[in-house]
Design brief:
heterodimer, A: about 375 residues, alpha/beta, D-Maltodextrin-Binding Protein, domain 2, ten-stranded mixed sheet, 15 helices, 10 strands, B: about 525 residues, mainly alpha, MetI-like fold, 2 domains, 2 strands
């Protein structure tokens, strides 16, 4: 209802009678819009393959990517139009979903990860739905029966191999190494308040050092750690490899970043990546998709979630988003099997602890590192 | 006759004054109330006494003070050159230096991010702030300086005073109220600046506005965000109060020449002032030129690739909102916001002119949003939509309402002087001829008010189109406005996103400039407002 009013656009007030008329218009608008604003969420649409296509709005983080033909094929087959809305980093889209819980801006949310899931579940953001597909059981368990796991990856320290070779410095191998003078002014990390890998790396240090993690960060600060807001500013901006013009050879990124270095390299492609992963201090991040509670197109939204874990899409994710598929038995590209590291024992923190402590940790981190 | 008069007074459209006032008060008070109830909780105390809060406040104040000092320092010679000297093309120079004030903040942020080698530092913020505010300062100071009686200086000169002594002993005391007024305005704008700081500032050094936004949206700590917004409001109200007392103490009995006289420049000082004025006017063009350059730069060569991409995105997976759609969304919001701002602002202005008592108080109340800051308005409305009596979350009207509250003080400032200039005897005459109050208003005030409303409406539309602070809190994910889309694009890597952000910026500048240009043409020549 409010959409129709809005689409027509308000009438220009006629001079002379303007006040009364405009007040009348505004009041009508308010009433109309109030009706529209609070309705919705009651109706659930079943997908009709012949009628008008159903529009499903998928809210994603800024890093979402997928091969275009997969999207258009899906739309044609299911009589669904996908609106893929990249609306900020993972933290921001989850927070906005929390603020709008029950009256969402979209129908499906993709990109909520293990560090943020508890916040979304506490705020009752999702209508519980887990796709019926052969997904890795440990990932399904992490979704707590509310959301569907789509992919996972490990946040790890990445190293610019050429820099260490050129400068004749031995690359660091443990988190503790990073506080040593040999690696002073070499590390760039993301702000955990604004970046998902940044938060994951903070979690890694909490998991590793327990109550002593503030001391570790104080040491990192004394050793000249640089902080930027997002992954791209760090990896593509400050990192000395990664295509940027930066001068820091150690960066927080993903265990799957080295294959990306080959895929995105100019032709002729190098046979080996120019970067490597430090296997100590990795933190596992699982990304989930969920149906937003209050969506008027819940059935179509579930079809979209099913599609995200379908075989073709899962096969596409490794090279479009550089993550591991959540689905079992999906063939990985050669560049992944050769160069993407699977960490044996990644650091993890249980969701309940994250839910209780995350804000305090980020606040304390901000005090230690940024002030 | 006397009793007739008394009856007339009683019949003054009380209804017309009170009903809209109640509506305006409700719309201004509701988000403020939401801020206060959320921010004034026992736990807020921890936020207020935290060392980090005071570091942020200190940093915000320091950058605002430096920005203000530099803006005023630069504005003085420019105001002298443009208002005291007769130089060719004066109107053009004046128009040029006023441009930045109506430019959207995120657009200026983007321009300086690309232009300055030291982007991402405090100095980048300060340069952008000076760029924004020097024109405003020139206008406020120049309006007074242009009317000073030049003979005072001549008398002083004939008594042997040097140029510096003449400035210090004659001009300075007379200009001080105007300089104070300009300083307070610039300080308020730079203290509550948001879009520019977010885009061009140092991520590790947030100002209070950025901190409020990050706490609310990135950390979901709404209580602390509201507490900070209240703290910021207190500082702004305190500054305004201090300024108005200072203003009263400093005000000098007007020494105004009947005819403003501008002299031909002579001497090094004059030519230096003229050079500075021309330099500032030309410098204004640089960031805009940079935007155009960024929008045309494709790799190492030039082309229209980003324009084509922006109008018809080829990448269907990320499905960036096409330019046309963002523009359409922004325009619709602007129309509604302008109507709301006009209705609210006009009603408020009319009420203020018709009420006999409490004018000053009302004046303060309706201009308060100017001090509340766009970010606080956005946060207040967001809190209201979540915790208010009705569930208004995601309601599209919140966006234009927020923009209207940001624009409303400007409407009042434009309309009020026009309405006040109407001789009340005209109304009395009309009333004694038997016209009912509403008819009196329509025949006497109406035509003049309509013209002022046209100007105010255009300015409101410009504000709404470029508004980012309130909109950032309220815009729905699926309907981004142009400034929101620009900031989204800037947070993604790669030159394609940067190029499209620049394209959107160029288009937004063109649209805003057209709207404001039309408004300037319609402006009554003797307006004393903005």
């Amino acid at each position: 209802m409010f959409r129709r009013f809005f689409a027509q656009g308000p009438t220009t007030p006629v001079p002379g009678r303007s006040i009364a008329l405009t007040v009348g218009l505004i009041t009508t608008g308010l009433v109309l819009a109030a009706c529209g604003g609070t309705s919705g969420g009651e109706t659930s649409t079943t997908v009709d393959t012949d009628g008008d296509p159903v529009v499903v709005r998928v809210i994603t983080h800024d890093s979402f990517a997928l091969t275009e033909s997969l999207v258009t094929d899906f739309e044609a087959e299911n009589n669904i139009v996908l609106e893929l809305i990249a609306a900020g980093d993972a933290g921001e889209i989850v927070n906005r979903a929390v603020l709008a819980a029950g009256n969402p801006d979209g129908d499906v949310l993709f990109g909520v990860d293990t560090t943020l899931l508890s916040r979304a579940i506490d705020a009752d953001v999702f209508e519980p739905y887990v796709a019926d597909a052969p997904l890795r059981p440990e990932l399904v368990a992490a979704g707590l029966g509310v959301v569907t796991p789509v992919d996972d990856g490990d946040v790890c320290i990445n190293l610019d191999d050429a820099w260490f070779a050129d400068n004749d410095v031995a690359p660091p191998t443990t988190l503790d190494d990073l506080t040593k003078p040999a690696y002073a002014d070499l590390l760039v990390v993301q702000n955990p308040a604004t970046s998902s890998p940044g938060l994951a790396f903070l979690m890694a240090t909490v998991a590793r050092f327990g109550d002593d993690w503030p001391t570790y960060w104080q040491d990192l600060r004394d050793n000249g750690v640089e902080v930027v807001n997002g992954w791209s500013e760090a990896y593509q901006g400050q990192f000395s490899a990664g295509g940027g013009s930066g001068d820091r050879p150690i960066v927080v990124s993903y265990a799957t970043s080295p294959p990306a270095e080959i895929v995105y390299a100019a032709d002729p492609k190098p046979t080996r990546p120019s970067t490597s992963v430090m296997l100590d201090g990795c933190y596992r991040q699982i990304e989930f998709a969920g149906v937003l509670r209050g969506t008027p197109v819940a059935e179509a939204a579930k079809i979209v979630v099913d599609w995200l874990v379908s075989e073709p899409v899962q096969e596409d994710f490794p090279l479009s988003m550089f993550v591991f598929p959540a689905r079992e038995g999906v063939a990985l590209p050669a560049v992944f099997t050769n160069f993407a590291k699977r960490v044996d024992a990644p650091l993890e923190i249980d969701p309940a602890t994250i839910a209780a402590q995350r804000e305090t940790w980020v606040e304390e981190w901000t005090q230690i590192v940024l002030r | 006759m006397d009793s007739n008069r008394a009856a007339l007074k009683a019949a003054r459209p009380l209804g017309l004054a009170l009903l809209p006032l109640a509506a305006v008060a409700l719309l201004v008070a509701a988000p403020l109330w939401a801020l206060l109830t959320e921010g004034l909780q026992p736990a807020s105390w921890d936020t207020l006494v935290a060392g980090s809060t005071w570091r942020v406040m200190g940093y915000t104040t320091a950058q605002a003070l430096v920005s203000t000092a530099l803006s005023i320092g630069l504005a003085l010679p420019v105001a002298f050159a443009l208002y005291r000297l007769s130089i060719p093309g004066r109107r053009i120079w004046l128009a040029l230096i006023t441009i930045p004030f109506v430019l959207p903040t995120v657009v200026v942020g983007l321009a300086f991010r690309e232009l300055l080698p030291f982007a991402g530092t405090t100095w980048a913020i300060i340069v952008a702030h000076v760029f924004f505010n020097v024109g405003l300062a020139v206008r406020v100071i120049g309006a007074v300086w242009g009317q000073l009686d030049g003979r005072l200086g001549e008398v002083a000169a004939s008594l042997g005073a040097s140029a510096f002594a003449r400035f210090r002993l004659v001009t300075w005391p007379l200009l001080r109220p105007a300089i104070t007024a300009a300083s307070v305005l610039v300080f308020m704008f730079t203290f509550t600046s948001f879009g520019v700081v977010l885009v061009v500032g140092d991520p590790a050094l947030p100002t209070i506005e950025v901190e409020i936004y990050q706490r609310a949206i990135q950390r979901l700590d709404l209580d602390a965000a509201a507490a900070l917004a209240i703290l910021q409001l207190v500082v702004v109200v305190f500054t305004l109060g201090l300024a108005s007392r200072l203003q009263q103490r400093l005000s000098v009995v007007g020494v105004v020449a009947d005819v403003s006289r501008r002299e031909k420049p002579r001497g090094t000082g004059d030519y230096l002032a003229v050079s500075i004025a021309v330099f500032v006017a030309v410098a204004v063009i640089l960031p805009i030129a940079q935007l155009v350059a960024t929008s045309l730069q494709v790799g190492d060569s030039w082309g229209l690739t980003w324009y084509a991409e922006a109008f018809a995105p080829s990448d269907n997976t990320t499905r960036a909102t096409p330019v046309a759609e963002a523009l359409w969304i922004s325009s619709r919001y602007a129309v509604v916001a302008t109507m709301l701002a006009l209705v609210l602002g006009m009603l408020a202005a009319i009420s203020v002119t018709h009420l006999k008592r409490g004018q000053a108080t009302l004046d303060t109340i309706v201009t308060l949003p100017l001090g509340i800051s766009a970010v606080s308005i956005g946060l207040g409305l967001l809190l209201l939509s979540i915790g208010g009596p009705l569930d208004l979350r995601g309601w599209w009207l919140l966006v234009p309402l927020g923009q209207a509250l940001v624009a409303m003080p400007i409407v009042v400032r434009v309309v009020l002087p026009v309405l006040r200039s109407i001789d009340p005897r005209l109304r009395d005459v009309a009333a004694s001829l038997g016209a009912r109050p509403i008819r009196v208003w329509l025949t006497v005030d109406g035509p003049l008010a309509l013209r002022a409303a046209a100007v105010a409406g255009a300015l409101s539309a410009a504000v709404s189109l470029g508004e980012f602070g309130a909109t950032a809190f309220l815009a729905r994910a699926d309907t981004p406005t142009v400034p929101v889309q620009i900031v989204r694009l800037l947070s993604r890597p790669g030159e394609a996103n940067l190029g499209q952000a620049a394209v959107l910026s160029v288009i937004l500048v063109i649209v805003t400039a057209t709207v404001v240009g039309v408004a300037e043409r319609a402006r009554p020549s003797k307006s004393t407002g903005w």
